[in-house]
Every structure is written in C-alpha cells, then in structure tokens.
Amino acid sequence: MPRVQYTDADVALMARMMRAEAEGEGQQGMLYVGNVIVNRALADCLDFQDVRNIRQVIFQVQGGNYSFEAVQKGNLFYNRARSVEKRLARKNLEFWRQHPAKYALWYFNPSGPCPPTWFGQPFAGQFKEHCYYEPAAGTCASVYR
C-alpha cells in the first residue's frame, strides 16, 4: 500500500519537483526532497492542513508565494520528467523514507551552516547543501505515522 494515493500525473509532477530542487545532490538528494513532498501530503497540521495530495503540495501558496521556489523560478521544473526521476518519485510514494528527511516537512539551502532551528522547527540533519527540519515535538503527530 502506498504512503499516499497517487496518479501517473502525480508521479511526473513530483519527479519534476525533485529534479528542480535537488538535481545537483544526486539521486539521494532527490529522494530526500521527495520525502518532504510526501510528508507534507500526510501531515494534517501546521501549514499543511489543507493539502492532501501531491498536486496540492507542489502548488501550495503560503504568504503569497509558492511553497517551492522552483514553481515560480525553476526552469528545470518546467522540463519534462525523466524516467530516473519518475522511478525515484514512485519509490518515495510507495515506501522510501530515510533520515535526515524521514519526518521532515521543510528544507532549505543556507548560505552558511544549518541553523539549529528554522522558524521554530528543529534541525533534523543535512545532506550536502540542504538542511532538513521536522516538526517540533507534539506539534504534528500525523507526520510520524
């Protein structure tokens, strides 16, 4: 049983986002970004109470901007999904989740070291240039299922 329900269109959309956000970090980095996407679809808390599927996660608007910068600015996001990224997206959707993004709902690429918190959420770990953050204890039980 998949972690979230999905269509082939969701796979292609998620694959495009994974590539746009983390192609420079290889397949492992793209899988971590995929973790965050799936976790947001599962989270029924914080900023993610109204997103229940992959399309809603990718195109979510917060504070007047898309949650993922690549939707607004990413040339790679608007390229066709390749088979390798589709395979990785399916892997995330079906079962794959690992530290540091196992429970992460956010990531970003700082200009320096990863801060210990980001908007009040604790640092979970780092992979290459991206820092991953999971919900503070007791704030989002649904992501830990």
From TrEMBL:
Q: Name one Pfam family in it.
A: Hydrolase_2
Keyword Hydrolase applies: yes
Q: Tell me the name of the encoding gene.
A: cwlJ
Q: Does the keyword NAD apply?
A: no
The UniProt record lists the Cell wall hydrolase SleB domain at: 24-133
The alphabetized UniProt keywords are: Hydrolase
A molecular-function term among this protein's GO annotations: hydrolase activity
| Name of the protein this chain belongs to | Cell wall hydrolase
Q: Which Gene3D superfamilies match?
A: Cell wall hydrolase SleB, domain 1
Give the species this sequence originates from.
Halobacillus andaensis
